[in-house]
Specification:
Order of helices and strands: HHHHHHHHHHHH
Largest sheet: none
Structural class: mainly alpha
Number of helices: 12
Helix content: over 70%
Strand content: under 5%
Shape: elongated
Radius of gyration: 26 Å
Length: 266
C-alpha cells in the first residue's frame, strides 16, 4: 500500500518551495532548465558509481521506490503463522512441519524451519541463521550509504554547474540584459543540486534505514519463533515472546542492548 508520509512529504516540500517562489512573482519556466538537471544528475550519479560497485549502485536505485510503498500487518501475520506451526509441532512433532514447508514464501523463515525439521539443535539453528542475517544486513546497509553519498555530491555538482553557466555568461558581457538572464539560469544548477540532496537523496536514505531496521527485527522474530518451536515451548508462550518484538519496536535505541542493536544496524 502507498506510504502516505513519503508521498505527502515530498509533495508538501515541492509545493511549498514552488508555491513560495510563485507568490514572489516567479514562474516554473525560470527553474525548468534541462541542461542544469543533466549536469547535476549526471555528475552525481557518475561520482556515486565511482565510489560503489555497480551491483550496489543499481540495488540502491531500485530500493528508492520502496519509500513510497509500505506493507502493513507483516509482523502480525508472521506471529500467527509461527504460533500455528508451534501448535502443530506440539501435537504431531516438528517433522510434521515438513508438509507446510512448501507454503512458506519467506526465504529466511523457510531456511530456519528446514533446519528445525532436519533435527538441528537450537543453538546451531541460531548460529547458522544469525550468520545469514549478518551477511544480508552488511549488504543492505550499503543501500542508504549510496543515497547519502549522492546527497553529499549533488550540491557540489550543482555548484560546478553554476560555475560552468557563469563561464558562458562571461563570454557575452557586451550584452548586459543577456548577462542578467544568464546568471539567473546558471544558479538553477545549484538549486537542483541542493534540492535533490535535501528533498530526495538524504530523506530516502533515512527512510530506507528505518525500513531495514524493521526487516531485521522481523527476521529476528522469525528466528526466535522457530527456536522456540524446536525447544517445545507452549504456543501461547511463543506468541507472548514474539509480541515483545512488536512492543520494543518504537524504542530500539533504549537500554544497553537496544543501543548496541541500533548502532549495528545504523
Amino acid at each position: 500500500m502507498i506510504d502516505i508520509a513519503s508521498v505527502g512529504g515530498i509533495l508538501l516540500a515541492v509545493l511549498g518551495i514552488v508555491g513560495g517562489m510563485m507568490m514572489e512573482g516567479g514562474s516554473l519556466s525560470q527553474i525548468a532548465q534541462p541542461t542544469a538537471l543533466i549536469i547535476v544528475l549526471g555528475g552525481t550519479m557518475g561520482a556515486v558509481m565511482l565510489q560503489f560497485p555497480l551491483n550496489i549502485f543499481w540495488a540502491a536505485m531500485k530500493q528508492m521506490t520502496r519509500v513510497f510503498v509500505t506493507r502493513k500487518g507483516d509482523s502480525e501475520a508472521v506471529i500467527r503463522r509461527i504460533v500455528g506451526f508451534g501448535l502443530k509441532a506440539r501435537k504431531t512433532g516438528v517433522l510434521s512441519l515438513d508438509d507446510d514447508l512448501g507454503t512458506v514464501a519467506d526465504p529466511f523463515l523457510h531456511q530456519a524451519l528446514q533446519l528445525a525439521i532436519d533435527g538441528t539443535e537450537p543453538e546451531e539453528v541460531r548460529k547458522i541463521m544469525q550468520l545469514d542475517l549478518d551477511h544480508k544486513a552488511e549488504f543492505a546497509e550499503q543501500m542508504p550509504q549510496v543515497l547519502e553519498a549522492a546527497g553529499g555530491y549533488a550540491p557540489t555538482v550543482g555548484i560546478i554547474g553554476a560555475v560552468l553557466g557563469l563561464i558562458q555568461v562571461m563570454q557575452h558581457l557586451d550584452d548586459i540584459s543577456a548577462v542578467g538572464r544568464g546568471i539567473a539560469v546558471a544558479f538553477v544548477a545549484t538549486i537542483y543540486g541542493v534540492g535533490l540532496a535535501n528533498l530526495v537523496f538524504l530523506p530516502v536514505a533515512g527512510k530506507l534505514k528505518g525500513r531495514r531496521r524493521d526487516e531485521e527485527r522481523l527476521k529476528e522474530m522469525m528466528l526466535e519463533g522457530v527456536i522456540s518451536i524446536v525447544e517445545g515451548l507452549n504456543p501461547r508462550m511463543i506468541e507472548m515472546k514474539l509480541r515483545t518484538y512488536l512492543a520494543e519496536a518504537p524504542a530500539v535505541a533504549k537500554g544497553p542492548q537496544g543501543r548496541r542493536r541500533g548502532e549495528a544496524l545504523a
